[in-house]
Every structure is written in C-alpha cells, then in structure tokens.
Amino acid sequence: MSKDERFRQKKQEWEAGTLKKVIDRSPERKAEFTTGSWLPSERVALPESGDFDDYNEKIGFPGEYPFTRGVQPTMYRGRFWTMRQYAGFGTAEESNERYKYLLNQGQTGLSIAFDLPTQIGYDSDDPHAEGEIGKVGVAIDTIKDMEILFDGIPMDKVSTSMTINAPAAVLLAMYIAVAEKQGVPRSKLIGTIQNDILKEYMARGTYIFPPKPSLRLITNIFEYCSAEVPKWNTISISGYHIREAGSTAVQEVAFTLADGIEYVNAALKVGMDIDSFAGRLSFFFNAHSDLLEEVAKFRAARRIWAKIMKEKFHAQKPKSMMLRFHTQTAGSTLTAQQPDNNIVRVAIQTLAAVMGGTQSLHTNSRDEALSLPTEESVRIALRTQQIVAHESGITNTVDPLAGSFYVENLTDKIEKEVWNYLNKIEGMGGMVHAIENGYVQKEIQDAAYRYQQEVERAERIIVGVNKFTIKENAPGGLLKVNPKLQEIQVEKLSRIKKQRNSDIVQNRLSALGVAAKDPDKNLMPFILDAVKDYASLGEICNVLRAEFGEYQESIVL
Amino acid sequence: MNKNIRILIAKPGLDGHDRGAKYVARALKDAGYEVIYTGIRQTPEAIVKTAIQEDVDFVGLSLLSGAHNELFPRIVNLLREKGAGDIIVFGGGVIPESDIPSLKEKGIRAIFTPGTPIKDITDFIETVK
C-alpha cells in the first residue's frame, strides 16, 4: 500500500469508528458549519500532500492516539468547553449568592475557591487564621458551611471543581455528605478536586503534611472514588501555579507531567490497575499571551502524556491516555496599571486555550491585580469566553492551527525540551526528590528572574507598565471583603461546637487517628464519618498532623 | 550606596505567592545588600524574632492574600514592643491604593504595588537610611 492509500484508509477508519461513535451519541451543535461568508467549515482539515506517515504518527486524528489534535473527534462542534469561573469569598452565604448569579449568567460549572485557612486545614478560630478568613475564598469549618454553600444548587446537575489540595479528602467527604442530604447519591456526582500536593511544595504553598503521607491520602482518594464516586475527577495535576511562579511554558508542561508520573507510580505501588484510575486523572494549565507557543504547548502536552501512558505505563484504554485539562488565563500577566487593558490580554489567552483544545476554562477579571473581582468584571470575563465560543468561528473546526509549519515545529520543539526535563528528573529518582533537593524550584526561579530582568531593562515590553504609561488615578469600585467576617465565622463555629454531640465527635476523631497509623487503611470512610458528625476541618487535620507531621519548606533563593 | 545594609524579606500569613518576594530578595542581593529571606507562611512573631536576631535595618513584607491590613501593622507593633522600632518596615503585593494611607499611618514606610521597578525600592532604601 502506498503512503497515500494508507492515509485514506486511516481516515476512513477514523470516520467509521471514532467519529461515528461520538456523533451517534452526541450530535454536533449544528447540521452545517460555515465561515462568515458561508464557505463550509471543514470538521477536521487534513493535509493534502506531504509525508502522511509522519502526520499519522505525530499528529493523527482528533479523539485518537496520540491525541495531538484533541481528545474528542468533534471538539467544540459537539459542545463548547465548560465555562467555569473560579469564585468564592467571605461566608458560605455570600459565595452561594455569587454561584447562583454565575449560573444565571450562563456559566456551566462551578469552581470553588476556599480561603487560605481552609486550604491549610485551620479552623477559623485558629491563631494561624488571623486576618486571612474569607479573603481569597470561602471559609469552610464544618459540613454546616458546605450545606449553606450549596443551598438551592442541584448537586446532581452541576459539575463542581474544588481547588483544595492538602485537605482534599475532607472537603470531598463534606461534598459527598451534603449531596446525600440533597438526595443525590455519590455515584452521580460530577466534579474535580485539585488534590495535587506536589505542586504545592514547589509553587503554591498550601501544603500540610510531608510527601509520603500526602501521597497516601491521594491514593486513598483514587481507590475510594474508583469504587464509590466513579464520575469524579480525583486529581487535577496542575501546571498553572508552576507557571504563575515564573516558569516557562516548557517547564510548566515538564514539571506537571513529572508530577503526573509520580502519582501514577504511587497508585501502581499500592496495587491499583492503571486503567482503573488513569481515566480519572485530569490536568490544569495556564494560558499566557504568547499565543502560538501556548497552542503548541497544549498540543505537545497531550502527545507526550499519551506516549507516557501507553509506552511507559502500558495503559490499554484510550481514555487512560487522554490528557484532559482545565485552563485558566494567566493571573501574572494582569497589570495594575490601566487595568482595562487586561480584558484584551485575557481575550488573547482565551484564544490560546480554545485553539489548544481545553475542556474547561476560567477567564480572569481585569481587576485581579488590584483585588478580588467585582461582579461586573467577572461578567466581562465570562462574556469574553462566550464571544470566542459564539462569534470567533474558531470553534467550527477541530484544532485549527494543525499543519501550520510554525505551530507544528514549535510543538515538536516543546516536546523535545520536555522529554529532556522528564529524563533528568527520572535520573534524580523522581519528582519528590527533585523537589526536595530544590532543583525544580531553582529552575522556576531562574526563569522568573530572567523574565523580570528583561522587563526591568525594557527588553520585554509590558504595555502600560514599562511603555505607553499614563498618569492614573487610583481605580475605584473594588470589591471589599466584610471586615466583620472573622467574628461571624468564629461565632458560627463555636455555636456548632456547642450543638453537636462531642462524645461522638471525639470517637470519630480517635478512630481516624488509629486508622492513620496503619498505612494499609483507606482513610476516606473515617473522614466521611467524622464530617457527618460535624467534626471540623481543623480538628480532622490536627489528628492527621499529629500522625503525619508537617512539611518544612526547603528555601531556595 | 551603603553596602552594609541588612534586609529581611518576609512572607507573613498563609499566602504562598512568593514569586515577588523572591524576586525582590534576589534583586536586592544583586544590588549589593545583605538579604535574608524567611520563606512562606511565617507568623508575625516569627518574622519579628528573625528581624531582631539577624539585626536587620529593613523588613520587607510581601502579601497577596488581602490580609495586609491586619498583618503589616501587627509586625510594626511587635517590633516596637520588642524595642526594635528603628527597623524600617516596607511592603508590597496586591494592595489596593485605598489601603495605603492607613498602612503608612500605622508605620509601614512604603508600599510597592505590582509593576514597580526595583530601582524604586533601592532608591527608597538609600533615601531613608
């Protein structure tokens, strides 16, 4: 068979197989897709000449290995990505109102931001929580707060993403318990917990326990969910924060996938079968303004992960090889100067995410270099996604930049650089070692320093910051978090502590402590029992702190 | 430039965003100052203790979580209580313009918001010292 014939055959196989299966199940949004001048928009534009074998191997067909062109055969012709704005502040009551507003505005999934005490497992009455309560997200102390947070929101319909890592098991347990109170069984729950501790050590900072017990909690969640909450994405392996900390696009992909490898290894080590959990792994990337490099980055990431899963871990199911990801536009590119310019930056970054094939997207608001976003700013950010979805035309064809000499070349280059890092990290004994010896932090910091020096020397132009500056008045109309919040939240917690049955709570907590000592025990059921009886997040984490100890940052400068 | 100036760069509170703090620490070091960096998630008490032990001239605080109105003044007050009120405190991070006057009244000598060139910080150090 000639190369031509092989290619035509491959195409027919894809149409009759992968494509047909999906279209039969979920038809495309429209019967016909056209450009603005009514020319037909091809579903998947393919090469007409050239080295088809090379194309098949490196690029292939969407919805098929190596998934360079996307994880679904029809991508956004089938349905748009999930528009999911990360939100939460103050009390559960206030956040509940913001979520209802966002759902009314056409948002299609929720994304919960927790305050820092919640993320680090401190109750609102803990001295460490001083000044931080409700500031960057909602404060959750007990299941009572979670009930209020989801009041009037149908948990069987909405998909929920929770940015929670070190105490992910506790918040997931609360979510399951509240859903059951709403009459929704856990088997129906759809959503994601971030649950990615490794990037906390190198970039984001909300760790509690050292790596080993943290990895145990993560694999406990994998095992529990694969049996009990089968539709739940048990981890969102995140490059977002690595990039925000100043890494390059290449480092973002490399360190994220290296984390992924570490989690897979941890799950295999406790005896799980690769195909029983790999399909529930999801990823989270950043979208910056260097449009074409970003598109290439997403495409390369998909291809590399598919290879890792197939060749290194011998996954059998295609689902296990798919890198599905959430994207957020780049907070670090937002400027406090001339903040309305940020709307344009976010629009470019939205294009990057969509042309890169994201499964869901958060667009940042223009005022986030100044404070939490106002309702108006959040609406503009959501509208940006809706404009790209409905007006730009890039959603009418799959992977529109495939075949561009520049983009394919860049995709290959990024892939090569990423493999270099992955091999190096493997040589160090894996990501835990690479973090503990400070290697990863140093790489990120060097890139961050170099970038900032270029900005300082105006070799890199940031509009409104080091060029095209104007004299500005302080912007008004910023969102303020209620300063009385700490009092309100502490008062609420002390009321619950008085009302609950404290003997039962003590029993639940000591049972958890005993189970924590036995590394073969899955802690999820113990945590679930504890939250149902109103044990607080801080109490549960303190039991685990006593057993597991706390992580100490290795400072690299 | 006075090269014997010692500066502590510190991250109070629970906020883990350390890109800015690390950049400023490294850039000040490159400018010739002696710089100590605390790492993230430090209590005000721990920061004050380090500042006194290390006998620094300046404490630079970085915070992006919005807890600056509570934590920055607390550090100034603790320094004064420990008889180290001569240590100059400055800050940076995501801090709304409208919060700056009251922070200055409470003894934080300067606030550097996002996009500030490092030269503004070195100029400040050289002017007040």
Sequence-ordered SSE layout with sheet pairings:
The complex is a heterodimer of chains A (557) and B (129).
Chain A: H1 3-25, H2 52-58, E1 82-83, E2 86-87, H3 92-104, E3 109-112, H4 116-119, H5 143-149, E4 159-162, H6 168-181, E5 191-193, H7 198-204, H8 211-228, E6 232-233, E7 235-238, H9 240-244, H10 249-269, H11 274-277, E8 281-287, H12 291-312, H13 318-321, E9 325-329, H14 341-355, E10 360-362, H15 375-391, H16 405-427, H17 431-436, H18 439-456, H19 485-499, H20 502-517, H21 524-532, H22 537-548
Parallel strand pairs in A: 1-10, 2-3, 3-4, 4-5, 5-6, 7-8, 8-9, 9-10
Helix pairs in contact in A: 3-5, 6-21, 10-12, 10-16, 12-14, 12-16, 14-15, 20-21, 20-22
Chain B: E1 6-10, H1 19-30, E2 34-37, H2 44-53, E3 58-63, H3 68-81, E4 88-93, H4 100-105, E5 110-112, H5 118-128
Parallel strand pairs in B: 1-2, 1-3, 3-4, 4-5
The helix tally of chain B amounts to 5
Helix content of chain A: 40-55%
Strand content of chain B: 15-25%
Q: Rg of chain B from C-alpha positions?
A: 13 Å
Helix content of chain B: 40-55%
The shape of chain A is: globular
State the strand order across the main sheet of chain B.
Answer: 2-1-3-4-5
The tally of structural domains of chain B comes to 1
What is the mean predicted local confidence, pLDDT of chain B?
95
Main beta-sheet annotation of chain B: 5 strands, parallel
**Class inferred from helices and paired strands of chain A:** alpha/beta
> How are the strands ordered across the major sheet of chain A?
1-10-9-8-7
Which stretches of chain B are low in confidence, meaning pLDDT under 50 for 5 or more residues running?
A: none
Name the average pLDDT of chain A: 95
- Named CATH architecture of chain B: 3-Layer(aba) Sandwich
